[in-house]
Predict the structure.
Amino acid sequence: MPKISLWIGFCLAFCLSSCAIFNTPNTSAPKNAPAKRPLATKPKGAYSNYVRDIVRTARAYTGTPYRSGGNDRRGIDCSGLICSVYTEVGLKVPRISWQQAEFGNEIEDVRDIRPGDWIFYVPDAGKAGYVSHVGIVTEVRSKTDIMFIHASSSKGVREDNLFSKYFKNRFVKAMRPF
């Protein structure tokens, strides 16, 4: 009988200690933890108010090596760059490029592309329509000079012109997120 009483007491203590109403929340952040901004599904205010921070943050990744599945400055892939940049400015976006390709409004005319828009392209010009790479438009200099930043699998994070010989035949579409 003492073993059963001891066992019941142990179980009761365990259940009560694991119940949320008996636990005190840990409100202290770990030392050296970066301040976190709350994530929002949609930006507070106009998306255009975030574009300057998005472009500045994206450019801070310039030179970061490419790493498939990477999410930080030690190594990053194209969709990870988008996700990391937007997270840093306080916005939540999908992580995977095909999900990003469905997030927002498609831009019908290339002449309507603006900084902050996402462009999608394919690595092989023969695979038209299959989205596998994404970048953020950083600057629109003219209708044939649109710069975007992306994580190149061979050269890491860099800026390129959408109308360069390599990219103009690989372009699939542009999206304006949110």
